[in-house]
Amino acid sequence: MTAETGTEAATPLWEVFIRARNGLAHRHVGSVHAADATMALSAARDVYTRRGEGLSIWVVPSGAITASDPADRDMLFEPAGSKIYRHPTFYEVPDEVGNM
Amino acid sequence: MATTSIVVAETELVLALLRRADDALVLGHRLSEWTGRAPTLEEELALANIALDLIGQARALYQYAGELSGFDEDQLAYLRDAGAYRNCLLVEQPNGDFARTIVRQVFCTAFTDPFWRAAMGSADATLAAIAGKAAKETAYHLRHAGAWLVRLGDGTEESHRRTQEAVELLWPYVGELFEADAAEQAMIAAGVVPDPAALRDGWERVVAALLERATLRRPAEGWMQTGGRRGVHSEHLGILLAEMQVLQRTYPGAQW
């Protein structure tokens, strides 16, 4: 945190999502500091679409995102680890079924 | 071993191209000077992006001017002295602080934005094509600079003071944007380049609206600087060119 200058610390943080092609979902690519939503879009364009990565940009105030607590990781995600039958590869499809 | 400067036979068209190319190259070089020194990472990249757009515009214009005059783009950029540069004085003014750079951007792009859009209708197909690309880039440059002008002017007491100072300092250089000498008039009459004077009202409207939103004062009409279009420059251009040209001047034809 000490690396942040006064100006940057006082400037809101925005999360940046970019859609690379039609039909794909917007994907989180990083964050920018900007004074308002318009300038955040501008900054996101300048920082994250320099090599033709994007067709569409979303910016979201970082504070608007509710995130899971890393300490809850075991509780939230470990139970899924042992349930291999939830993966389609768990099942053998009889030849008679043909294409699914 | 230093190289000798080239002498370009400036037909009316070559001169018109060099004026726009030199504006783009000199302003692009000025913005590139922010690299490593910008206030934030976001602005570092924004200014470098704009600089690269401008240098790209300059290259396209130099290539075309070069075809007509027998030089290549590097010779036109690196082997002309300040007296042969045809850019307006505004673009060569030093960066100063971030506020001054932004005010210079607003004044320049509020002119180049309508200029390139108008030039898309040029009777010269090559220039029209160059204008088509430049117009898209410049529209973004104006939006970027305008957003910052409002933020800085209507920001803190200090950012307001610095931005107002920059407006006063650079105002005497805006008159030159709308000049057109006899050579330029000939190209305007031929439908090759837009008439800068016809863009003045639009420029005034855009700048006045931005200044108002930024709570900045528009300076009173007064004496305007002139000379850049015929090679009479401020001392700042010589220093800029010395840095920009030193490599090609010292190692002629060096490539990397």
Number of helices of chain B: 10
- Rounded mean pLDDT of chain A is 88
Which oligomerization state do the chains in this entry correspond to?
A: heterodimer
CATH class of chain B: Mainly Alpha
Question: Segments of chain A where pLDDT lies below 50 for 5+ residues?
Answer: none
Largest sheet of chain A: 3 strands, antiparallel
Q: Helix coverage percent of residues of chain A?
A: 25-40%
What's the short version?
Helix content of chain A is 26%, strand content 20%. Chain A has 100 residues and is an alpha+beta fold.
Please write out the topology.
The complex is a heterodimer of chains A (100) and B (256).
Chain A: H1 6-10, E1 13-19, E2 27-33, H2 37-48, E3 56-61, H3 73-81
Antiparallel strand pairs in A: 1-2, 1-3
Chain B: H1 12-32, H2 41-69, H3 73-78, H4 89-92, H5 98-119, H6 125-153, H7 157-170, H8 182-189, H9 200-213, H10 235-250
How would you describe this structure to a colleague?
The complex is a heterodimer of chains A (100) and B (256). Chain A is an alpha+beta fold. Helix content of chain A is 26%, strand content 20%. Chain A is built from three helices and three strands, in the order αββαβα. Chain A has helices spanning 6-10, 37-48, 73-81; strands at 13-19, 27-33, 56-61. A three-stranded antiparallel β-sheet of chain A has the order 2-1-3. In chain A, strand 1 (13-19) and strand 2 form a beta hairpin. The radius of gyration of chain A is 21 Å and the shape is flat. The N and C termini of chain A lie far apart (53 Å). Chain B starts with 11 loop residues before the first helix and ends in a 6-residue tail after the last helix. Chain B has helices at residues 12-32, 41-69, 73-78, 89-92, 98-119, 125-153, 157-170, 182-189, 200-213, 235-250. In chain B, helix 1 crosses helix 8, helix 5 runs antiparallel to helix 6 (125-153) and helix 5 (98-119) packs antiparallel against helix 9 (200-213). Chain B has a single domain, classed as Ferritin, core subunit, four-helix bundle (Ferritin). Helices cover 64% and strands 0% of the residues of chain B. With 256 residues, chain B is mainly alpha-helical. Chain A binds chain B through residues 5, 7-8, 11, 32-35, 38-39, 42-43, 45-47, 50, and chain B through 39-43, 45-46, 49, 140, 143-144, 147-148, 151.
